Amino acid sequence: QAQLEESGGGSVQAGRSLRLSCAVSGYTLTTHCLGWFRQAPGKEREEVARLYSHGITTYPTNSVKGRFTVSHDAAKNTLYLQMNSLQPEDTAMYYCAAAPPAYWDRPLYESSYRGKGTQVTVSS
Hints:
This protein is mainly beta. It is built from no helices and eleven strands. The strands form two sheets. Strands 2, 4, 5, 6, 9, 10 and 11 form a seven-stranded mixed beta sheet that branches. It has a four-stranded antiparallel beta sheet with strand order 1-3-8-7, with no helix packed on it. The termini are far apart.
């Protein structure tokens, strides 16, 4: 059964770092792109990072560019999101998601292939 399971969230002070992990089963980068999106209370969902099999990464949310890095360990089929210089506005539930090629032109948060999320809280 295909599954995405996030971990690594927590509460940190502004300026600190966190690394989120997503254990992926049933999907691989050869068949899907993988990535992360987030949703904060009262705010719209934002796609923060995406990774394709040919190594291309995208960061659609301008505020995370230069601070967040998405990567993948093929041996473990685990997706990571390294988040540095965290700010209170990064506080959100973070979700891992997968999308087949037919959905690559859509935001990742529109994919039905997603995990349950991990909470990140950044205090000032």
